[in-house]
Amino acid sequence: MPTMPRLFALSAALAALLAAPAAQAWSALGHRMVGALAERHLNPEAEAQVKLLLAGEPDPTLAGVATWADDLRNTDADRFKATSRQHYVNTTDGTCHVVMERDCPDGQCVIGAIDTQRAILADRTRPIAARRDALKFLVHYVGDAHQPMHANNHPDKGGNDYQISLRTKLEPEAYAKKNYVDGVMGTNLHSVWDYYILGEVGVDKPGHPGLGLKGYTDKLDAFPWPPESGAVSDPKAWAGESCRLVDARSLYPEGHVLDRTYLDAMRPLAEQRVRQAAWRLAKLLDDTLGSPAPQP
């Protein structure tokens, strides 16, 4: 029978959920792996264009800018608010068929945002600053579209309203530490997919030695490449895949108390989605940036 301190910790962790902010995306590690893996597989013309566009960035790599769209929360709150709906798409009829007029009005979802930012990136008459931002948005949004909880047909805001008590040795990110009590994290299913599934083996920090960005990217790059026979080029199809995976792979647990058993079981799928996102991002950038600039 659980001890009274353990029962108290569990209750406290669950109660803390009410104050936890909604997760927005793959964790920093997941997004950076998408960027790092994609950059390894760009064609030379696209690679040169990426270097040109990202010149002057603190970390001028796809991995280095992969979290920029989420970082706007702290660096440009108004812009983050204006783009917050562009990180996901939810259907409202219980199916995985996205109706753009209903589920993505005015292009304000991850599908519409990818199309919009790709058009900006492809237009070489645009200012380089606009194209740079478009590239940074694309790296992030392609990753988002492959996170299953970002394209969902459940009425719980992509798992944000599905409460979870998770026993884990991985401490949360700084904003959520108040919800971590006696090794139990009060969180939600979205955050489990966002941070903990990949983070349990990938996060490398004091007290939690992990693979780190390079080590984890090397591991995923060691599998046969590309991860599929033909890259799907339609972001609407990517979102549909994510949505269908939610039920086909039973990503929703039967209960609300989880441990590393769930994380270990779901990690191969999460890693596959990172690899698919990286492959498709590389192909998208090859197709968008890989041809010479048009002659006047």
UniProtKB/TrEMBL annotation:
SUPFAM superfamilies found in the cross-reference section: Phospholipase C/P1 nuclease
Keywords: Disulfide bond, Endonuclease, Glycoprotein, Hydrolase, Metal-binding, Nuclease, Signal
UniProt keyword Glycoprotein, yes or no: yes
A GO molecular-function annotation: endonuclease activity
Superkingdom of the organism of origin: Bacteria
Domain named Zn-dependent PLC: residues: 140-153
Residues of the signal peptide: 1-25
Keyword Plastid applies: no
Pfam families xref list: S1-P1_nuclease (PF02265)
Family annotation (InterPro entries): PLipase_C/P1_nuclease_dom_sf, S1/P1nuclease, Zn_PLipaseC
Gene3D superfamilies xrefs: P1 Nuclease
UniProt cross-references to PROSITE patterns, sorted A to Z: PROKAR_ZN_DEPEND_PLPC_1 (PS00384)
Protein name in the entry: Endonuclease
Organism this protein belongs to: Noviluteimonas caseinilytica
